[in-house]
Amino acid sequence: MIAFTDIVGMDLAKQALMLLAVDPSLGGVVIPAAVGSGKSTLARAFADILPEDTPFVELPLNVTEDRLIGGVDLEATLARGERVVQHGVLSKAHGGVLYVDSLSLLDSSAISHIMDAMSRGAVLVEREGLSEVHESEFMLIGTYDPSDGDVRMGLLDRIGMIVPFTTQNDYRARKLIVNCVLGKNGGGEDTEDELKMLKGLIEAAKEQLSHVSMTQEQMKGLIQSAVSLGVEGNRADIFAVRAAKASAALAQRTDVDEDDLKLALKLVLVPRATRMPEQEEEVMEEMPPDEEMPPDTPETEDQDAPDDNSTDPDEEEEQEETPDMIEELMMEAVETELPDNIMNISLAAKKKSRSGSRGEALNNRRGRFVRSQEGEMKSGKVAIIPTLISAAPWQESRKKERKKKYGKVNTALVINKEDVRIKKFRDKSGTLYIFMVDASGSMALNRMRQAKGAVSHLLQNAYVHRDQVSLISFRGKEAQLLLPPSQSVDRAKRELDVLPTGGGTPLASALFLGLETARQAKTKGVSQVMFVVITDGRGNISLKSLYEQDAPKATKEEIEEELQGLSATIFAEGVASVVIDTQMNYLSRGEAPKLAEKLGGRYFYLPNAKAEEIAMAALS
Questions:
Q1: Which of 155, 364, 457, 580 has its C-alpha lying 20 to 30 A from 48's C-alpha?
Q2: Is the separation of the CB atoms in 241 and 25 below 8 Å?
Q3: Is the pLDDT at 605 greater than 80, yes or no?
């Protein structure tokens, strides 16, 4: 078996495993990599750098519940004449390592038990009349091929480090790997000596760990980096701090430095990113040079401002700027370790370079502070420095005037209403994709399959922009809003799974409902909306018939007039559109291309399209 020190490449994964060996409270390491990369070999070799007699338990994918959590050993019970309890795999891993290969393929029930054990530090065995608690604190090592699917987010939330996905195509590295496997390099006394040195280093790091300190600025910087990258939950913040300290301990330092912070960013925060951090200038247009916010001025100075409205401290914390040093490290980590197969951050960079700023809107409350402007204190957060700068030139004349009027001046600074400057923030609100799925006719089943895959794929790829997806189905007499604007792909899948099909095609109703959904979303800060209409374009149910019970059946011309009017309104309100025509060519009468033309949108003829093609058509 190849030793840990003999494995070529996968340096970042090695670093992650060493950090875990130093601080098991990091929970574990997940290593996504392609087939043949050596990820499984590396994971099994992790036992080489652990203390002797440390449990290393491998969990098979086909594990049964009784093998996983334990229960009554029926055979031993019958043989002895008394109940014999059998411990499961999770409790056998107590104090050591639980290794799962092909983690993304593990049964959801087994994942639930693992998550419960990691949260409790124990396994609850409640089965076959047995009620026991077995200790189960372990480090979880998981490897998988991203092409096999994703790992459940709830499990990843409990694992401290996720190695960014990388490919190994370097010729020299591959040659070294082949030589190592064939025994031409590695092994022998040199390997044993290296392992002893590495184990000694890890033991020394464990002793050093309790003496490692981190400054408040570094800690706040990591937390703000997590906010900038859109990392969800507080566990990641804690893991990042622990990873940085473990890195410092490995280097036998008592203080965390830049290399430690960078490693924590790469292994903990960047793989969990849901968006690219903004890289714009702190001070924007419309702000004269003498009104710039001094870099050393803390944002919390707002708390002393004469503002009538109280401010939520959580909102105030979100506005705190990342220290320059941490921000530079964050950008370097993002640029060098893009986790394409976990959260495709590179897509965000491509989108920004191609189409510029995306879905950004100025507001008075949240986001990044970009400039100040005149306003009333009750309308937003007061920009202290610009307000003081505005009032400063008039202090002498105002004090004289006040002394002349009142006989004395009670304040050191006289600020008038016109001096007040309000902060303007830039918030990336993302794009709302409204899927309108034609559930009528003979092609309904095919459309449902395509739509389900497309919604899932689009949400996965657009998630880095904080985009949202809404789902509208239209069949029978009217359209239905199955999924309000949401980032939950699971909800979209559930709604599509139970979606009935057949009946008429109320296309006008779908467009009307989509327009109402878009208008409501815009009132909540969504600045960009795109319709993705999957249909053959053959609307045959009038919108008017929904509101007039005794209305005669609408003619084809009346329905066309409705569609024309709705489409014109949608285009005038700045809603982009994509029409996906899934109708077979020999059946088409050109209705879908005409609909795209009415909407002023793009048309794609994809009768046999894959989910990825539909999603990319909408994103392109």
A1: 155
A2: no
A3: no
The C-alpha R_g of the chain, in whole angstroms, comes to: 30
Asked whether the beta carbons of 534 and 435 are under 8 A apart, the reply is yes
pLDDT of residue 401: 82
Round to whole Å and give the CA distance between 550 and 473.
25
What residues are paired with 583 via a beta bridge? none
Q: Give the integer Cα–Cα distance in Å for 50 and 141.
A: 13
Measured distance CA(437)–CA(449) in Å, rounded: 11
Q: Whose structure tokens read 């001025």? A: 297
Span of 63-77, 146-160, 480-494 with lowest mean pLDDT: 480-494
Give SS3 for 124.
strand
| Residue 481 · residue 516 · CB < 8 Å | no
Q: What percent of the chain has pLDDT over 90?
A: 26
Distance CA 250, CA 230 (A): 29
CA pair distance 168, 170, nearest whole angstrom: 6
Amino acid symbol at 118:
M
Pairing of strands 130-135, 368-374: unpaired
Kind and range of the H or E run holding 232: none
Strand, helix or coil for residue 554? coil
Q: CB 84: neighbour CB atoms within 10 A?
A: 14
**Token pair for 417:** 């209403």
Is the predicted pLDDT of residue 208 greater than 90, yes or no? yes
Over 402-462, what HEC string results? HHHHHCCCCCCCCCCHHHCEEEEEEEECCEEEEEEEECCCCCHHHHHHHHHHHHHHHHHHH
pTM above 0.70, yes or no: no
pLDDT of residue 568: 92
H or E element at residue 31: strand 28-32
Report whether 593 contacts 600 (CB < 8 A).
Answer: no
Average of pLDDT values for 402-409? 77
Could you give the C-alpha distances from 294 to 279, 301, 364, 387, 444, in angstroms and in order? 19, 12, 20, 13, 60
- Identify the pLDDT of residue 454: 65
Domains annotated for the chain, with CATH where assigned, are: 4-169 (3.40.50.300), 210-291+313-340 (1.10.8.80), 358-427 (no CATH), 429-619 (3.40.50.410)
Report the 10 Å Cβ neighbour count for 278.
16
What CA–CA distance (Å, rounded) separates 473 from 505?
A: 10
Determine the residue type at 339: P
Q: What SS3 class is residue 342?
A: coil
Q: What is the per-residue pLDDT for 566?
A: 92
What is the Cα–Cα distance from 538 to 524, expressed in whole angstroms?
33
What is the pLDDT confidence band of residue 385, given thresholds at 50, 70 and 90? confident
Helices first, then strands: H and E counts in the chain = 24, 18
The pLDDT, as a whole number, for residue 311 is: 42
Note whether 179 and 170 are within 8 A (CB): no
Mean pLDDT of 403-408: 78
Q: Which amino acid is at 141?
A: I
Are the C-beta atoms of 144 and 103 separated by less than 8 Å? yes
Locate 118 and state its tokens: 């990691």
- Please report, for residues 19, 28, 35, 45, 142, the alpha-carbon distance to residue 41 in angstroms, rounded to integers and kept in the order given: 18, 16, 12, 6, 12
The rounded distance, in Å, linking the Cα atoms of 156 and 177 is: 30
